[in-house]
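Incident log, structure service

09:12 report received: a user says their structure output differs between two submissions of the same chain.
09:20 pulled the input from the user's history:
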Amino acid sequence: MGTTTPPRTLAEALRARGDESLAGLLRARPDLLTPVPNDITQLATRAGTRASVVRALEHLDRFALQTAEALAVAPDPAPYDTLLSLLTGDGLDDGEQRDDADAAITAALPGALATLREQAIVWGGDDRLRLVRTARELLAPSPQHPSPTGLGPTVAEATAGMSPGRIQEILAATGLPATHDPVSAVAALSALFTDRTRMAELLDTAPVEALSVLDRLVWGPPYGEVTPNPTPPVKWLRDRGLLLPVSTRTVVLPREAALHLRAGRAHRVPEPVPPAVAAAAARDPQAVDGAAAGQAFTALSTVEELLKLWNGGGPAILRAGGLSVRELKRAANALDVSETVAAFWIELAYGAGLLATDGESDERYAPTPASDEWLDLSAEDRWTHLATAWLAATRTPGLIGGQDAKGRALSALGPELDRSAAPDVRRRVLALFAELPPGTAPDAETLLRRLRWERPLRGGTTPAATGPGSASTEGTDLRSRLALWTLNEAELLGITGRGALSSQARALLDEGPAAAAARLAPLIPEPLDHVLLQADLTAVAPGPLERPLAETLSVLADVESKGGATVYRFTPGSVRRALDAGQAAADLHAFLAAHSRTPVPQPLSYLIDDVARRHGHLRIGSASAYVRCDDEAVLNEILADRRSTGLRLRRLAPTVLASQSDPGSLLEALRDMGYAPAAESAEGDVLITRAGARRTPPRTPPAPVPEGPPVPDATLLGAAVRAIRAGDTAATVVRKETSEDASSTTTPSGSLPRTTPAETLATVQAAAMTGSAVWIGYVNADGAASQRVIAPVRVEGGFVTAYDHTADEVRTYPLHRITGVAELAEDGR
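09:34 re-ran on a clean worker, output below:
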């Protein structure tokens, strides 16, 4: 521990640590660093608070937690050998298998203790191990919160409220000599239960039914209910103190008796070694990479299709935020996936900054300007952008469709989907994948078992509630659910292929996006610059198309089927859509001739010419709305059609009809009647409708919700340790006697020094001349008082400029705010 005298408090133990050890504590528990503690005492106090201890316990692995649990039921303080015996047992029931387990525990215990010491959960030397009081309160047994070990209270704790007469009766029943001292009586009973030989003799006289009762209580919970007239076996146990009363109807098996029945072990199954992740299947690594690359390409195509679907303005936002169930179903149908998978793609695009809200009064979702930049990237760079965003995202699509703590449904893009543990679980799952040989798919059950071993308290068993969205508020094992969702999402995204981690994903985790893109590039098919036109008014794209070709073709034709090859169908509506976008019939003919490897079928040419001939023959403008046409017969035909009755048309001139409907409604109504009208501006020019022109203002992707404070870097840790050391020097410094001191030659700094202004000025001037340090009391502008050790450099104009050892920097202090000053004792400098 660095000192010859054992530390009496956690603060003393921390004060004896080196700087590297203190930095390790702050790195393991970054919540202690916000704000930076003033000194070691404040650091120790903060390390013992309930919230901080709970957070630290949540990050322990199972064996470190079992070690802390064993210390919680051990005497305080406990020597190392006592702790070891609680984990291995007393050795009286050992066999060959037990010997192997004990050897593993003996080998792992120093590492577990080192972890607990580093995180200031345990302090003291091996001869006096102490568990932080808050951790003992959380892990020690009580009727409201049984110990995780399943052990009950000690004999002394269970008999605290028992009458002396009842204790004498128990002593008499067990054959122990009577004593009038209650403390001696309890000690005698405890000694009996901890004596292997005498305890075995006592249990040999027990009825078989009484031993069965003990078997049900020995591994916990140790509490049981009894009737006013208990059965003979229970009465036998109660008379001999093997069951002690907690209330009129509740009894408990005392800890000493339970440990005897357990052969001295605090845990039924100690787990010193992490369970191995088993392999479910071994596959060819090249086949894995190929399958993952194919799925990566599908992921890119799906996200592109989603952006295209919401290109002209997506669905409206619910009042409570998020996407309605109906809009989610509509997106799922358009993407030809299930609603669960559609929710994943929507959340992924949102998390990658490709989708956002437009901020209009009628707020809707739409692609962001960043989506256009993303579409211009190469396929491999687009994939690494999505994969990187997925790894860091705290939004959890798997929760969609469930309910929050208030029973409200969780919707896609809603506000309650952040789970701060998600990034850590994703990376840990993929790290366990990476530990297996290339091409090996892990067994899901063993993978979950390993995760539970690494963070056993993150599944809702934490003994104190944490923040919203934490594991303890989910009601189930959140980390396991996150892991299962990670397996599915990694396969959808192409991180894994056929259940195994791909080489491009390994490169992403180990080397970064550039290396992953280089691995993926040869596996992504090259985009094509042609299609195959067929006589049935379809076009077949035998692979991915170049972006300009794909965009133009998606306007000119409708996607009929997707897969290895995409089939597009030309319809009058799709051709009219291209004409509305500003294309002429000649442009469409030239486009198809340039990009088709087969001759342009005659039916397709006729279709384009026929739609183009009628397109714009009718013109729609705003009167409220009007229809004009050079052919009076066409207008007569419209007026005679019963379907136009609702439009309330009337003739203004031989070639003009007026309507009470707005231009958009009139345009759609006439198209539904089989006409091909075109909209025009107030100047009479045809309005061209550009496909997919709606974008949100520039938006940043949603920031992940961190799981507690971030881990500080080395620079911040070094500065924090220096500040804490300096503050501790100021708080524990010894100053020389002043005229106001009483009898001692040195006085600890329990309060601020008090000197007159003249004495203050004279002392700091003398210190500036001699270059010595002094101890001051200082009150800032907010009235907060503090103690500081400073080395004055200059005193002038009512201010003292000095190097502040507490803050580790040069500062200037107004002299009128210094309450007093004292020189440091020789051993305090």
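09:41 both user submissions now match this output. Likely a transient worker issue. Closing.
09:42 reviewer note: The longest strand covers residues 785-796. Residues 459-476, 738-750 have pLDDT under 50 and may be disordered.
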